[in-house]
Design a protein that fits this description.
Radius of gyration: 16 Å
Largest sheet: 5 strands, parallel
Number of strands: 5
CATH topology: Rossmann fold
CATH class: Alpha Beta
Strand order of the largest sheet: 2-3-1-4-5
CATH architecture: 3-Layer(aba) Sandwich
Strand content: 5-15%
Helix content: 40-55%
Order of helices and strands: EHEHHEHEHHEH
Length: 174
């Protein structure tokens, strides 16, 4: 199964992705660390490194799916092109695809989380609240089914809800 996490920076999608990874014993392919590695390798930031990071995640996901593993992708996935690429990959690999969007319904909590988060990504700047608001305004409407989780709920509850959703979906058509 291909599980694609979606949501704005700081909303809590990485925490849910990591909890699901532990529960499912599945790899998480996170786009931000990939992009940070591309920069550390010497590719200039003016290049389309974000697009490259998604491409690397897709190629790595394909390899893991071919091995019969469930894969979790952790990225904003706010553009139709990004979502379409995951749809195409799931079709090519003949695996079920599940989108999980994580949002934080309280803007003050979301902003506080974003400002307090410290990831270990050398050279990768944390987004500003203003940049998150710009992404929110540009976030493409959904055309696909997805599970929506509000990260104001406790992480164990979100994880259990997602696992129940994935278990039910796994029994149905992909």
């Amino acid at each position: 199964m291909l599980i694609v996490m979606c949501g704005l920076p700081g909303a809590g999608k990485s925490a849910v992705a990591q909890a699901l990874a532990r529960a499912l014993r599945a790899p998480v392919l996170s786009v931000d660390p990939i992009e940070a590695a591309v920069w550390r390798a010497g590719v200039e930031r003016e290049q389309p490194t974000g697009v490259a990071a998604y491409a690397v995640a897709q190629a790595t996901a394909a390899e893991n799916l071919r091995l019969g593993l469930t894969v979790i992708v952790d990225a904003v996935n706010d553009a139709p092109e990004a979502r379409s690429a995951w749809i195409d990959l799931a079709r090519e690999q003949v695996v079920p695809l599940r989108f999980i969007e994580v949002l934080c319904s309280d803007p003050e909590v979301h902003q506080r989380r974003l400002l307090q988060r410290r990831r270990d990504l050398p050279g990768f700047p944390e987004p500003t609240w203003e940049s998150v608001q710009e992404r929110r305004a540009a976030f493409a409407d959904w055309q696909q089914e997805r599970l929506v989780l509000d990260s104001l709920r406790p992480l164990p509850e979100l994880t259990a809800h997602a696992l129940a959703h994935l278990s039910v979906d796994a029994a149905g058509p992909g």
